[in-house]
Each structure stands twice: as C-alpha cells, then as structure tokens.
From TrEMBL:
Organism field: Methylobacterium nonmethylotrophicum
Protein name: UDP-galactopyranose mutase
Record key words, sorted: FAD, Flavoprotein, Isomerase
Organism classification: Bacteria, Pseudomonadati, Pseudomonadota, Alphaproteobacteria, Hyphomicrobiales
Family of this protein: Belongs to the UDP-galactopyranose/dTDP-fucopyranose mutase family.
Needed cofactors: FAD
Enzyme Commission number(s) of this protein: 5.4.99.9
One Pfam short name: NAD_binding_8
Amino acid sequence: MYDWLIVGAGFAGSVLAERLARRRGERVLLVDRRPHVGGNAYDRLDEAGVLIHQYGPHIFHTNSEAIVDYLSAFTAWRPYEHRVLAMVDGMQVPIPINLDTINRLYGLSLTSEELEAWFAARAEPVADIRTSEDVVVSAIGRELYGKFFRGYTRKQWGLDPSELDRQVTARVPTRTNRDDRYFTDTFQAMPAQGYTRMFERMLDHPNIHVMTNADFRDVREVIPHRRVIYTGPIDEYFDFRFGRLPYRSLRFVHVTRDVARHQPVAVVNYPQTDAYTRITEYKHLTGQEHPKTSLTYEYPSAEGDPYYPVPRPENQALFKRYERLARAEADVWFVGRLATYRYYNMDQIVGQALAAFRHIDAQLGRPAPARPAAATGPSLAAG
C-alpha cells in the first residue's frame, strides 16, 4: 500500500514526491509513461557524447530565493545568462528587441532616448488591447510586428497573433537600452551536471519508488494507494468528457555537426523563413568542451505530446468545466502545467508544487510514524 500515487515525473510530480517522502515520511509511487524522469527538462548524452535537452532548451531563471535554495539541495549551478538572436532581413540581431537591434537593422545610431521616440512614432494606438497583435502593434508598430512576431507566432501556434490572447507576445518585452539578455531575473543558471542528474538526486529516497514506461490507467487499478497527485493533462484524466483541450506540440530534430561551434549564441530564432522556429546549440548552455557540437531544430506541430496550452478564451472556458470536476474529486490533487492548463516556467512549477505540499501538509495534519522502506530501495530509470 502506497500513501501516494503521483502521476508524472516532471518538476511538479518529482518535487511533491520528494517533499512527501522526506518531510512526511510517506511511501510514494511515482509513475511516468516516458522511459525517464525529468519530464520535458530531461537531458542526456547523445551518440557523440554531447549533453543535449531531449525536448528543446530549458533555461532556469527565477527571482525566488526560496526556490533556488530548495533546488540547490540537489544540484550545484553553472552561471548562465541566456541570449537569443533572430534572423531578420538576412542578419542576426538581438531579441528581445533592444537599441542594438534597431540600430543594426536600420543602419541607425540612435540613443536610448531617441529610440523611445522612434518607437512612439511607429506605434499604432489600440483602444482595447486583447490580442497578441494588439500588444506588439500598440508598442512598436506594424513593421516590426511583421518582421519579428507575426511569422514566428503563426508557426509556433498555428494561429495568427490576432487570434491569440495578449499573454503570448506580452512575455517578450521591448527594450530601449542595450541589455541583450533574454531574461532579467536575479538568478540565472544551469544545473551543473544537468537536469536529469538533479532529478535523480531529488528522487533518491528509500520511500520513493519510480516506475517509468508506465501508464497511470494501468497502475491505478492494480497497485493499492491512498491518494493521488495528478500532473498530466486534466482532460485525459476525465476521459475527455467535454472534448479535448487544445495543445500545441513540438517536433525535435537533433543533429551533430563536426565543428566546435555552429552559431554565436545558444538559440537563434527564425521568424521570417523556414518551417522551424529556432535552432538550439547546447554547448552554450552547458559549457561542455567537445570537438563536435549538437543542435536541435524545433518544428511546432498540431499533433504529438502536449506542450503549450493554446491561450484563447474558449479554451479557458472548456478548462473551467474540467476544473469543476477536479475540485469534486476526493483525495486527488491536480498540479502542474498540464493539470492546470497554464503555461508555467520551471521555477513557477516548482513554486506551485511546494505550495501544494504546504497545503496538503496542513490539510492532512501530522503524518503517521514513517514505515521502514522495502529492502530493494528506490528504482530510477533516468536514461
């Protein structure tokens, strides 16, 4: 008999497994249908021996000291500030758009103050900012919107920005200084030995049993457990009772090149050309020394594993119907990006999982005395 069956071995499920085992002394069965732990943050050595992220680049950044302190129990850190270039009009320029972006693109020598006026002269007033198109056009005008945002967004989401909630492009700011960092959080770093090693340490506890290549529907019928934490798609949990929630998926093509470096930064975006949205070169992220380099070409797709909830009002209304069912489920907690149909950064998922643990701990009260673990100890299949 397990105290908890946790579905999904990504950040949400793994953090809760660790807290419940270590802080409450309870027995946890953590299951994942994939052959590894770590969810989308899973990284591995490829055939050439280069450390890559199987599901595209994952860059850790946060303003929360508490989240850094928690994760630091399981990893050392490599300082890394993420920089992205966009291939626009045949040249690679910084994104988010900043002073250097505009000066290079247009052959200008504007100052920060002059750039503010330059943007203002091109901005189109929008009375009611509702869509992603509204956000960009009202700030920097239609020409830059066309160069940087429209094509990329259409590829990424399969929808025009005018059909998407404003939050999509609001995530990418526009700057009038020369700050070319993609993020401005106070803490920006990568796990020194990779994400997979961090997850392995997090789950290395005698009260945690990890079962990969396992489907929740099969496990829940045959393995006794008292309570469930579910981090998978909420519509799937309820057998798609009201229909499927729309997600955007991704297809990744991993290649190795017989050169030490392919591009000047970790990520180059392609808003104007090609079917892929971006190319990632991982050695920039990891600091690995290797005579070869490995890249990932990223192709958005309507089919495949769910990655991004599609931010439209009708989709949120459908989620609310599932959320009402979830609230009525006894002894089941829904946590994480897929279970709450919301895009979270990694630190936000960790924060949500830690908050969920505090809620569970308060709700259930003092746990029973910890039982001794099985002699076999934990089982990890992390690749």
